[in-house]
Amino acid sequence: TPRTLRIKLQGTSVRIFLENGSAGYAGTYTTNGSYASGNVAIGTQSLVSSGGAYFDNVVTKTSSDISDTFIPNYLTPYETADTINWSIADDGTGNYVYKQSAYNDNQYHIAVMKNETIADGEIDTKFSLSSDSSILAYFRMDSNGNGYAIRIRRSGANVYSSLWKVSNYTTYTAIGSETASLSSSFFSGATARTVKVKVQGTAVTVLLDNGSGVLSATHTTDGAYTSGNVGIGTYALLNGAASFDNFAVKSTSDIADNFMP
Predict the structure, then answer these.
(1) Computed from CA positions of residues 148, 152, 153, 158, in that sequence, does the dihedral angle turn out positive or negative?
(2) Distance of CA 84 to CAs 81, 103, 109, 110, 245, Å?
(3) In terms of Cα–Cα distance, which of 63, 62, 42 is closest to 53?
(4) CA-CA distance, 46 to 89, in Å (whole number)?
(5) What percent of the chain clears pLDDT 90, i.e. is strictly above it?
(6) pLDDT at 69 exceeding the cut of 70
(7) 3-state class of 41 per DSSP?
(8) In 31, 44, 93, 222, which residue has its Cα 20 to 30 A from 53's Cα atom?
(9) Given pLDDT bands bounded at 50, 70 and 90, which one contains residue 24?
């Protein structure tokens, strides 16, 4: 009977789970830290019978979580305005957030995570946003600033979602229509909200949590870009700064059972 193997990597820690049909066995190892990232593969060694070995249902999942401090090494600002306005700031409680303080300039302000490329996966972040302003989650961005962005727009207490195609960081073309207001009370109160953008092929799902429940919207890309960098941004901040916290990226790649070449 076929068995299953799961290997979990976190820093120098390596955990191995073997499922024999009734219970999982876990072994723990520690690398020497020489290699921090790279390709994955499967293989065999010293097969001693003519039956050979085979693999099936291979799945690779990688995740990278950015700390609350938003170390600039991870997120690189790309500005369409003349000045840089991203900063790491205390939100007033001793917690640090990534803040964009340029407003009343009708500009896009973008911070791209240039060392994380995903095809399909999830982008999660907590955000605070003033009225009549927008935040964005970018995905599948190439080195020339081409890709996609989900825009979350606040109008009073209402919230709207839309999908945009980005060209050269500066030109934005709507794909489909903006949703009707997902909630007329989403931004009631001053509590920070959370957004999750899930990308699978051309399907994009937006999940917004207002603290008591999740609102959802769906969009469809035109298929022009299939992988690339991720990032966050703002647009046309009219009544104050916007901030981001607990930014996380999870990239998922599923390999088909038939292992097409």
Answers:
(1) positive
(2) 8, 12, 9, 10, 19
(3) 42
(4) 56
(5) 36
(6) no
(7) coil
(8) 31
(9) low
CA distance 227 to 245: 24
Q: Six-digit token pair at 239?
A: 């009544």
Scored b (16 or more CB within 10 A) or e, 141-155 reads beeebbbbbbbbbbe
205: its two tokens: 């799902």
pTM of the model: 0.71
What is the per-residue pLDDT for 25?
Answer: 66
Please tell me whether residue 13 adopts helix, strand or coil conformation: strand
Q: Which two tokens stand for residue 45?
A: 């060694």
Reference 217, options 192, 198, 242; nearest CA is 198
Integer angstrom CA distances of residue 196 from 26, 80, 85, 98: 32, 25, 24, 17
